[in-house]
Predict the structure of Transporter family-2 protein.
Amino acid sequence: MVWLFVLLAVTAGTLAPVQTAVNARLGVSLGNPAFAAFTNFAVGGAALLVYLLIVRPPLPTFARLTELPVGGWVGGLMGASFVFLNIVAAPRIGVALLSVLVIVGQLVAALVIDHFGLFGLPRHELNAGRVVGVLIVLVGVLIFRRF
């Protein structure tokens, strides 16, 4: 069963740069990265609405919505920022370099989240192996940028 989630993660990973490239082109076509990001979320929202109408899961109660942590509400803002920033950066630095830099940012943020156990997640202490792993990725960015 774990292999299925590995496959899903790899699939999600392949979709990210494709989404970035498509959205960057959309930003050029529309003449504004914010319009491209809005279009991205409108189409994605419509697709999720169709899914919800087909599957018909129970709606969350008002009480449950009011109990959500702040992070439950700012996730969409983070997603919109991520998509918008990718649309702006991709035409200027390329999707490949952008993707590598995004991974560096994700790793650094993930180390901080793990080390401090943020967002109610279990703590995973920062150690030399994790730091060296991120440094190796940073060296990879320098090599990538050079060639």
User: Anything to note?
Assistant: DSSP finds six helices and no strands in the chain. The chain has a mean pLDDT of 94.
